[in-house]
Amino acid sequence: QKAAIFQVGLQREETKQVLWKSWLRALGYSKNMKPFEELACRVPLNFIESIEPGERLVLKQAWLLGTAGLLPSQRLKEEFCHGEETRELEQVWQSVGKEAKTMRGSDWNFSHIYPNNSPVRRIVAQSQLLQRYSKGGLLRGILQLAKEAPSISGQRVLENGLIVAGDGYWQDHFDFDVRAKTKNSALLGCGKAGEIIVNVLLPFAFSWGGIAGEPELKEKALYLYLNYPKLAENGITRHMVRQLCLEDMANFTACQQQGLIHIFRSYCREGRCTQCP
Question: Nearest-CA neighbor of 179 among 189, 168, 171?
Answer without folding.
Answer: 171
